[in-house]
């Protein structure tokens, strides 16, 4: 499982990182640092929290 973030939709609200700081990283300007993240085992709940928290709907879960 991985997370995909549409970087051009990210407005830098930072709610993903606020809800799951061990998974989502922000750059120096407060935007998502990476477009694709692997979800480590046991962190699916955190990944889903970040998806739900994004007001721009820029984050989605992707199954391999």
From TrEMBL:
Coiled-coil ranges (or none): none
Keyword annotations: 3Fe-4S, Electron transport, Iron, Iron-sulfur, Metal-binding, Transport
Regions crossing the membrane: none
Matches recorded under InterPro entries: Fe-S_cluster_ET
Cofactor or coenzyme needed: [3Fe-4S] cluster
Keyword check for Secreted: no
Protein name from the UniProt record: Ferredoxin
